[in-house]
Amino acid sequence: MDNKDSEAEIHPLKTEDVKAQENHENSVERRIIIKPSSQLSRLSRWRTAAFFVSLFLCLIIVFAFSFIIPCPERPVSERTWLRNYDSAVAYRFLVIEDVNKDKVQDVIFAFKASNGSSSFNSSCLDEGSLPSPCAFITAVSGTNGRVLWERPAATEVEWMQCGITQLGGAPGCLLVGQPVSLTAVDQQTGEVQWRQSDDFGANYTVLTPLSVIPDVDGDGVQDLIIFIATGDKVGHCEVMLSPVTWAGHGRNAACFSPAVSNSIYAYSLKDLYSAATGMEIKLPGLEQDPQWEKNVDHTTHRSIIHVLFLFSTGDIRYLAKIPGRSRENILVVSSEMTTLISAQNLQTLWTLNVSRPLLGYYKPDVLDVVMIVEGGSGAVQWDLKLNSRAESPQPATLSTADHRSTFLIWGEYQVAGNETVSSLYLFHPSYTNVLLELRNSTDQIIAFNATLFERSRHACYVLLRGPQPGEEPGLVSLMKRKLKEDVSESRVIWLSQVAVDSEQYIRDRLYRMRYHSRV
């Protein structure tokens, strides 16, 4: 210690330099330490700010969607509603379509009266030259039965079909009225798109439904074709060059015609157009089927598909398309039997003594015909003796979530000790020995239909009751009723003596049945 003090006394400047150097080194070290810590501090502040900004934006978005931006209002469908029309008669037309685009199905029907509903205060005089009473077309909301639009259309309605896309630029209805005219009505507004007078000849009958065909006149819009039976000439084709969309099938475009009461013929659209106009036409995108071409009579330009040669020939009522393995097959329904014909080789696949078939799904994703018959083989899956009168409403089906169908059938089932009345029955393949009696009715039912009023939910049926044309005018009623309302109050009918579950358990299970909208 004494040495250091003496050295400092001898060299005072050197000591001051050493202290300055040590202070400098300490200062540099402090700056090196402080610099990274300050950078980390600034980075931490930026991260904190970014976090709070993101949180603030998230809160703004949640607040906007919760309170500022309104959620789309879902229409509340009433379980049942009823509309009455006094001093009227109703036609056998009942169409279910989404008219006002609220994603709920609506109802379109036709009735004849001097005045329309009180909601619109319309009359036959609104259309000009129509006499009173006249035929009205009206659309009713499926949610609550409110009248969406109503329009006097003709003196009488011979035939009507709705759901035709791009009919006059919008989805619409096409009707044949008296005096003879074709009228296109906008399905959403009820406005008349166009009207064309025509002469179909004496004693004509419109063979329904119309067929939508490719664009044959080259205007860029698909056309439609109507079959008219005049006198003893059945199967006359009336080609209408109107704007509709083609919903053709397969590779071959053909016009099916019940040319005589017990025969079915197929006509090439190309040959039909050439015969009607005298001009050749090319239909792009369609190919000729070699198998069908072999059956074409080049003199008459028609192909014989099916002729009934049985003990007694029955009149052919209608045709339907049934999905097959490679293409759709043809279901022929006559007054005495039902036949499935292969669309590939035109051979009969099966024939059954069933005159009122009902298309539905007994097995998952396998289309069947009620008796119930498997669509591919014709094997009987289930049958029931049910008296069905000629005036009984057509049956209906609803697709269920298990890829099968609920069958709704009108008829009279004889139960020991009970009086038989016309009733609506429900059958589902999960209970092959059970039939639910939903409701019985002594009223005259003009038309009946069942559908899902909303996608995959709200299964309902619609009843149109009252007098028909040619009868004395009276009360016409249109009713929608939710199916569950009748299931909960239904009567369980055991088709066999074996009771697997209790009646209440069956009601509860069918009440909870989930439905599915098939595309």
UniProtKB/TrEMBL annotation:
Residues 81-237, 262-516 form the FAM234A/B beta-propeller domain. It comes from the Eukaryota. Pfam families: Beta-prop_FAM234A_B (PF23727). The keyword Transmembrane helix applies. Keywords: Membrane, Transmembrane, Transmembrane helix. It is a single-pass membrane protein. The chain crosses the membrane at residues 49-69. Residues 1-22 are annotated as: Disordered. InterPro entries: Beta-prop_FAM234A_B, FAM234, Quinoprotein_ADH-like_sf. SUPFAM superfamilies: Quinoprotein alcohol dehydrogenase-like (SSF50998). The keyword Membrane applies. PANTHER family: PROTEIN FAM234A, PTHR21419. Belongs to the FAM234 family. This is Family with sequence similarity 234 member A.
